[in-house]
Amino acid sequence: MTNDKTKKAASPDGPYDVAYFAKKHRISNEDAKEIVEKYGANRKEADKAGRRISA
C-alpha cells in the first residue's frame, strides 16, 4: 500500500504536491503554491522556477 503524499509527488502526469515541492526546493509553502499554480503539470518549468527562488 502506498502513501498518498508519495503517490502525488511521484506522479509524472500531474502537478506537484505543494508541501513536497516546497521541501524539495527548500522554499516557503507560499512560494511553492504560487509556482505549482502557475506551472501546473509542467514539472520541468516548475523545477526551474523552484531552483531560481532557492538560489
Summarize the structure.
This is DUF3606 domain-containing protein. The chain has 55 residues and is an all-alpha fold.
What does this structure look like?
The protein is mostly helical and 55 residues long. It has one domain (4-54). It is built from four helices and no strands. It has helices at residues 4-10, 18-25, 29-39, 43-54. Helix 2 packs across helix 3 and helix 3 runs antiparallel to helix 4. It starts with a helix and ends with a helix.
Helix content: 55-70%
Radius of gyration: 11 Å
Total beta-strand segments: 0
* N-to-C SSE string, H for helix and E for strand: HHHH
User: Which structural category do the helix and sheet elements fall into?
Assistant: mainly alpha
- Biggest sheet, open or closed, and with what strands and sense? none
**Looking at the chains present, what oligomeric state does this protein adopt?**
single chain
Overall form: globular
Overall structural domain count? 1
β-strand percent reads under 5%
N-to-C CA distance: 36 Å
Extract low-pLDDT stretches: none
Mean pLDDT: 84
Tell me the number of helical segments per DSSP (H or I, 4 or more residues long): 4
Key features of this structure:
DUF3606 domain-containing protein, single chain, mainly alpha, 55 residues, 4 helices, globular, 69% helix
List the topology elements.
Layout: H1 4-10, H2 18-25, H3 29-39, H4 43-54
Organism: Rhizobium esperanzae
Protein name: DUF3606 domain-containing protein
